[in-house]
Amino acid sequence: MKILFATSNPHKLKEANDVGSGYGIEFVQAKEPYPEIRDEDVGKVAEAGAKYVFERVRQPVVVDDTGLFIDALNGFPGPYSAYVFRKIDSAGVLKLMDGVENRRALFVSAVGFCNGKTVKVFRGECIGTIAKELRGEQIFGYDPIFVPEGCAKTFAEDAVTKERISHRKKSFDAFCRWFLSL
Amino acid sequence: MKILFATSNPHKLKEANDVGSGYGIEFVQAKEPYPEIRDEDVGKVAEAGAKYVFERVRQPVVVDDTGLFIDALNGFPGPYSAYVFRKIDSAGVLKLMDGVENRRALFVSAVGFCNGKTVKVFRGECIGTIAKELRGEQIFGYDPIFVPEGCAKTFAEDAVTKERISHRKKSFDAFCRWFLSL
User: Fold this and answer.
1) Of the residues A1, A11, A138, A168, which has the fewest C-beta atoms closer than 10 A?
2) What pLDDT is attached to residue B38?
3) In chain B, where are the structural domains located?
4) Do B96 and A96 touch (CB under 8 A)?
C-alpha cells in the first residue's frame, strides 16, 4: 500500500519507510511545500500541514512535524527546531546548554494525516538528555546531541537504537497501525 | 485620525503612538490575535497578519512584525525573535554570542496595513551591534543588548535615541507619511 508523505527531508522519508515496511506500507515522497503555522504544538502544525497538502494533491497524505523540547531552555527550540538548526546548529544549542545541569529533553514527532474526510494526528515521544558535546556523525538534525533515556550513546552514534525507540518510530508506528485498521 | 493597531504588546503601541502623535494619528489597540506565518521575511508576516485581522474587524488596521537579525548567527533569531525571547531571553542570545567577534546585527520592523482594498508594507531598519552584556533596564525585548550604530549605549539605556532612530520609528514614520497622503 502506498501513501504520500509531504516532506523535503530524505532522512524523514527513510525513517518513515523503515517503519512502514513492517506494515507493508510504502511512503512516497511528495515535494509539495506547505506553510507551517506558528504553534507551540507540533501536532497542530502537522495537522494544518496535512490539510493544506491534501487540498492541493487531493490524495491521502501524511506530514511530520518534529520538535526538540529542552527543559532548561523552556522548551526551546521546540516547534522551531528546524529553523533553529539551520541558523545555529547543534553547536549553538550546546553553547546555550554550556554549564547547565538539567539536561533533560524531549523529542516529539507528530504525524498529521488527511484524506479529505478524516484528519488525524499521531504522536511519538522520546525522553532523553542533551549530550555535553557533539557525538557521532552529523547526518540528521540534533541526533549528535540527543541521548535517549537509558542509553549511553547519542542517536547519531547508534542508529539501531534510534530506529527502535525514536519519537518518529513511535509516531509512524501509531499511524501505520491505525491506517491498516481502516 | 484613529487607526487600529493589532498588537498585544503595550510597548509597541506606545512606540507607534510616539511616532503617530507627530502626524495627528492615534493608534488604537486591537487585541485581535492573528496567526503569524512562518516566513523569514518580517514584511510577509506583517502583511499576512494585517489581511487576517482586517477580515475579522473589517476596519483599516496595521500590524507590526519585528526581527533582530544577527550576522554571526546567520540571521537568528530573525522573524522568530519574540518566540526566542520568551524561551531563552536576551541572556540566551548573549550566551550564543560569547566569544564571537563579529557582533553586527540588524533590527527590522515591518508595518503591514490593510483596509480591504490596499495592502501595503512599510519597513524600518536599524543597524547596530550586540553588546557584550545586558545594559539598561529590561523593559522591552532585546533593547538591553542592542547598540545602534554610532552610539555607545544600548536602546535600553537610551530611550531618547531609540525614539529618534529605531527600526520601529522608521517603519511607522513611513506608514504615517503614506497614510496622510491618501
Assistant:
1) A1
2) 78
3) 2-180
4) yes
Note the pLDDT of residue A85.
96
CATH topology of domain B2-180: Maf protein (3.90.950)
Chain B residues closer than 8 Å to A98 by CB: 95
Considering CB atoms only, which of B36, B74, B95 is closest to A96?
B95
Q: What is the dihedral of CA B94, B9, A72, B36, to 10 degrees?
A: -100
Condensed to tens digits (0 to 9), the pLDDT of residues B113-147 reads 999 999 999 999 999 999 999 999 988 999 999 99
Contact at CB, A98 and B95, closer than 8 angstroms: yes
Cβ contact, residue pair B96, A95, below 8 Å: yes
Q: Measured between beta carbons, which residues in chain B are less than 8 angstroms from residue A51? A: none
Q: What are B18-71's pLDDT values in tens digits?
A: 999 999 999 999 998 887 877 889 999 999 999 999 999 999 999 999 999 999
Confidence label for B84 from pLDDT (cuts 50, 70 and 90):
very high
Strands annotated E in A50-172 = 61-70, 77-78, 104-114, 119-130, 146-148
